[in-house]
Amino acid sequence: MRTKSIRFLTILMVISLTVSLVALAGSDHKAAGKAKSKKEKKTDVIKLFNGKDLSGWVFHLRDTSVDPSTVFTVKQGVISVLGDPFGYMRTEGRYSDYDLNVEWRWPVEATNSGVFVHTQTPDNIWPQCIECQLAAGNAGDFICMSGADMNERIDKSSVVVKKKAQSSEKPVGEWNTMKVVCREDTMEVYVNGVLQNRGTGVSVKEGHICLQSEGREIQFRNVYISRPERSK
Q: What is the pTM of this model?
């Protein structure tokens, strides 16, 4: 009888230990899941172009007698910019620490344009900003406009900081992608996935984003910024 009791108690102890180990394993799994979720950064996406109209944008043209609605138009989710007269459309809001994503193409002829980041006001045909060049063959150059500067502009007689790689642009009619990564006073620009330029010690760290009218027609689509979601 005593032997049976010992066996019974042993079985109970084994069952109890097994249950405890299973519970502990489950707890560890949940804790690991929570730790993983904390490491994963959520992304906040802001569409600068809604695909329908140009609400949220401000327009500035050198020739003030021209109606901006004849220069900047929208059709089937695409912004068309005539290129003449010179000027730009800029966001109403100001932004910092973001990834800017823009698609562009030349519908007729590859010519000249640009994307302005960290643009300062008041509006000026050449505002203080960093231009990410879109001129054919030079997409990815930086232009330090109206007093803006960066460490890489070693030759102070020129406002241009040349791109580092060969042109990664696509032919006329095909869509290109530009990604501009802005973090505090550092800026990188990618053209069709190729890192073309990097600037450090950038003197302007936040501001408006602009799409330029300069040359002939250019088209834009899928204009948005993404950045880590800010704490609420």
A: 0.81
